Amino acid sequence: MSFRRLCSTGALCVLSSSAFAAGAVWDTPLAGFDGNGASAATPWASADIYAEWNVFDSTSLDATPDIAGSGSLSQTHPAAGSFLTGSGNLYSSGGAANFIVDLTAPAAGTYDVWLRIATQGTTANDIATLNGVAASKVVSFSTTLGGFGGSEEEAWWRWTVTDPLALQFAFASPGAHLSLDQLAVLAAPVPEPATWLSLLAGLGLLGALARRRA
Description:
Distance between the termini: 49 Å
Order of helices and strands: EEEEEEEEEEEEEEEEH
Number of strands: 16
Radius of gyration: 20 Å
Number of helices: 1
Helix content: under 10%
Structural class: mainly beta
């Protein structure tokens, strides 16, 4: 994510862009997908249970993902003093921010589920929850910001769930000055054991045929 011009009534912070990545674009691949999320033509991932935002249109509830899917993102702590930047980031200037992401996901089977965010300034807390179950953050991209300080960061959390009726994610910041740049959630089915066995058998057959031809 590139620099953001963060404006409030009493202050203006302008950051140098010299070491930053492109704005509203994922800089790292994840979960076998490498879309950059810059537009609906290039989503990070593709799945039946999926939603992605890269421009936020409300400080409290955004129920219109920009890139793909359906779901809602809420910032639930009024004391965070959140406002939208000119580039569409959700910036919390007054205090810690608390975020809730909701997706309806009635599905049978076992799923690997990812919550992915890109932030600037203050980074998100290490722990996030899915339906009340905690997971630890994994940072996939980080660089130090100038200006008001903090970091530019891409991070993700992962869970495995079975037969989900809905997915509710919760994450937060430890204090003011988190600027949320992108957010995506993905639930991908975990192949059944029989599927893995069939795949391995097919690969073995292809290997045997290749050896005979050689």
